[in-house]
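Follow-up to my earlier ticket, as requested here are the two runs.
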Amino acid sequence: TPGSLDEFASKEILRAYGITTPAEAVATSLEEAVRVAEAIGYPVALKTAAGELHKSDRGGVRLDLPDAVSLAEAYRDFSTRFGPRVLVQQMIPAGVELLLGLVNDPQFGPMLALGTGGVFVEILRDHRLLLLPTTPAAVRETLLDLRSAPLLKGARGRPAADIEAIVDTAMRLAALAADLGDLIAEVDINPLMALPGGAVAVDALIVPKRDT
């Protein structure tokens, strides 16, 4: 999205509100990228930090890199195509992918968006909007009303997701909205990975309001 903060800067703001993200750091050289990866522990994800368009639409993300050799190969590819700035990120195990966000409605102000996330966002269009301020009970009820709710409860032999961690993350985002709602046009956490223990904002984007 033009004018948005990059992924790392967006997540720095989320981290300030106690929202869990993967361990990650920006690197601008191969040596630095390897150093970060060794500190985090393999496997890692590598993402170009040259802008959101490159990241999603032009193959600027590589997942599950198992060692320094594969990291170096990916880094050289990215630096040639996109430039030297990358984000090295801890791999988060697969869970239930949710969408959590804020939208700023001209009439109602900041609203919390909650829905099924990951690659199915556009296909399923399964999301709900909550007026702010809200309560943990209202978030929980909305969450369990989603089409993906059976997955959260542990359908098909999967472990159940940590519902309270998802609710806690949503309430932290609501606190951010209360503080920064006048400055922010949109927050998009997709996916919020719901795990058996915890919920992790794997990717995020914050769009500041433009001066009008």
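Run two:
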Amino acid sequence: MIRFLKNVATEMRKVSWPTFSELVRKTLIVIVVVGILMLFSYVVDLGITAGIRHFSR
């Protein structure tokens, strides 16, 4: 177990961590994409609901 943790620590030192500005930029991209997908899903849901109501009369 100790050897495993030492290996993990060694590998973690090799990781290329993002800078703060990269982190913020990529986080904003994720938030925008999620918002667009949420809006798209909402519009599709409205369309399906309207279609079901129209054809169920």
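The only thing I checked on run two: DSSP finds two helices and no strands in the chain. Let me know what else you need.
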